[in-house]
Automatic annotation (TrEMBL):
Family per record: Belongs to the Nudix hydrolase family.
Domain of life of the native organism: Bacteria
Organism: Hamadaea flava
Taxonomic lineage: Bacteria, Bacillati, Actinomycetota, Actinomycetes, Micromonosporales
SUPFAM superfamilies the UniProt entry points to: Nudix
PANTHER family, per database record: ADP-RIBOSE PYROPHOSPHATASE YJHB-RELATED, GDP-MANNOSE MANNOSYL HYDROLASE
GO molecular function (one): hydrolase activity
Listed CDD domains: NUDIX_Hydrolase
Domain Nudix hydrolase positions: 2-133, 152-292
Pfam families for the chain: NUDIX
Protein name: NUDIX hydrolase
Keyword Cell inner membrane set for record: no
Swiss-Prot/TrEMBL cofactor(s): Mg(2+)
Keywords: Hydrolase
């Protein structure tokens, strides 16, 4: 099957009586319900995307009040011959205006999640149920336009990793890569079918040689550089959505880059917070360090 990737942002809002605002694209006798939200436009802030999608699908104006979840799932489209990896960002939101107005041809309403059929993604977020991969019988083409050759859209996961002494684990970006020479949180782009937390464990080992345990989700942000220069010297329109998790290494060793030569990491090391202040670091690292 052809492999495709998509990044979406979704919102959760409750009415205080056990009901969640849900939407459905079907008016069948037994519709399947999901969270309001949808795909990000290129270079779009995920928080702006969930606000836009919420208004389009429910008629409500919302404000993002927190980050709830980041995950990935696979959706099979047999009639299209497509297997889609869908990175999903879930935010807690509150209603600040508007009125319930479903999108034309769709449904929206306040629903008790336990009383209806939910798509697998919504069941996992709202009920903690793992229903496996979704099979979608859609036969019409995807709404997402094809990406230009020089456009890169990436979903990445990083770790704010500490050891029992409070040191922070960082990696230095290699020459020829965007941000070269700066110290960065270990992490990087997720592989097809890989969960963000799995990507953090893999990337931490590749960049530093450490075995990390991943904890809570700390933040979600995005980065857009329409004139980034890749390692081959080819300009690219670079858009990255970035999730940051807290993590720890209980038995630290000397940090060593284990990935193949020519990769994006030049060096790695453990640093006391005071030492980090003297380094040239990325904006993502600076933002995460405020959590310590």
């Amino acid at each position: 099957m052809e492999k495709r990737r998509r990044i979406g942002a979704y919102g959760v809002v409750r009415d205080g009586q056990g009901q969640v605002l849900l939407v459905s694209g079907s008016s069948a006798p037994t519709p399947r319900w999901h969270l309001p939200g949808g795909g990000l436009d290129h270079a779009e802030d995920p928080r702006a995307a969930v606000i836009r999608e919420f208004q389009e699908e429910t008629g409500f104006d919302v404000e993002v009040v927190g980050v709830r979840d980041v995950s990935a799932d696979l959706i099979e489209f047999p009639q299209l011959g497509v297997l889609q990896h869908h990175d999903r960002l879930v935010f807690d939101v509150k209603i600040v205006g508007g009125a319930l107005t479903p999108e034309e041809g769709e449904l929206a309403g306040w629903i008790v999640p336990e009383d209806v059929e939910l798509v697998p993604f919504a069941a996992r977020v709202l009920l903690g149920e793992d229903l496996g991969n979704e099979i979608n019988q859609r036969s019409r083409p995807f709404d997402d336009p094809a990406e230009p050759a020089n456009r890169v859209r990436r979903f990445a996961a990083y770790g704010l990793i500490t050891d029992p002494d409070g040191r922070v684990l960082l990696s230095q970006i290699a020459r020829g890569y965007p941000g070269e020479g700066r110290w960065h949180l270990p992490g990087g782009g997720t592989d097809f079918g890989e969960q963000p937390t799995e990507a953090v464990v893999r990337e931490v080992f590749e960049e530093t040689g450490q075995q990390a345990e991943v904890g809570e989700l700390l933040d979600v942000s995005f980065f857009h550089n329409p004139a980034a220069m890749g390692p081959e010297g080819v300009p690219m329109d670079w858009f990255s959505v970035r999730s940051v998790f807290r993590g720890s290494v209980s038995s630290p060793t000397s940090a060593t880059v284990t990935e193949e030569a020519g990769g994006s990491t030049a060096a790695s090391g453990w640093f006391a917070p005071a030492e980090v202040a003297a380094l040239t670091i990325t904006d993502l690292t600076r933002r995460a360090m405020r959590r310590l």
